[in-house]
Amino acid sequence: MESFDQRIKKSLITKAITICVTGALLLLFELLLAGANVAMQQAPLLLVIAILIMTVNVLSSMVYKWVMKDGGRHAIGFYLIDKVVRFFLVIVIVLIYALADRRNLLAFALNLLVLYIADAVTSMICYVSIERNFNKKK
After folding, report:
1. Could you write out the DSSP letters of every residue in the chain?
2. Burial call 14-39: b when 16+ CB within 10 Å, e when fewer
3. How many whole angstroms separate alpha carbon 37 and alpha carbon 32?
4. End-to-end CA separation in angstroms for the chain
5. How far apart are CA 115 and CA 113, in angstroms?
6. What would the DSSP string read from start to end of 74-100?
7. pLDDT of the chain, 138 residues: tens digit per residue
8. How far is CA 124 from CA 45, 47, 80, 84, 120, in A?
9. CA 35-50-12 angle, 5° bins
């Protein structure tokens, strides 16, 4: 049976693969639909967004381990705070980009939205599977 730390590592690997595949698909779609100029302008931004999302995932996993050590009594509060922090982070990123560089703002916002949704869905799936195994263990 997998330990709790192994399940966390497995979920982080799953999230990383999801973000990488989603980013590659977004870049491909931009290349096909918007052209090479837009795709090459968005490529470094996709990489930065992916790194930022994975950093938040690692920090979130560390907090999740700490929350679950006391039996998971505060898990629902953690989920809520985690989703709110991620949502506000996305809003701040879009605002910073809109103020700093307005070129292809719609493409940037759509990329960020798709990566955010992919990460949110993957996070929910991973947390549900970890919780299911955690509750079986009790």
Report:
1. ---HHHHHHHHHHHHHHHHHHHHHHHHHHHHHHT-HHHHHHHHHHHHHHHHHHHHHHHHHHHHHHHHHTTTSTTHHHHHHHHHHHHHHHHHHHHHHHHHH--TTHHHHHHHHHHHHHHHHHHHHHHHHHHHHHHHHH-
2. ebbebbeebbeebbeebeeeeeeebb
3. 11
4. 14
5. 5
6. THHHHHHHHHHHHHHHHHHHHHHHHHH
7. 678 788 889 999 999 999 999 999 999 998 998 888 888 888 898 999 999 999 999 999 999 988 888 777 888 889 999 999 999 999 999 999 999 888 888 889 999 999 999 999 999 998 888 878 766 665
8. 25, 23, 11, 14, 6
9. 140
Tell me how far apart the alpha carbons of residues 102 and 98 are, in angstroms, rounded to a whole number.
5
Tokens found for residue 86: 């991620």
Q: pTM of the predicted model, to two decimals?
A: 0.87
Instruction: Give the residue carrying structure tokens 């701040």.
Output: 92
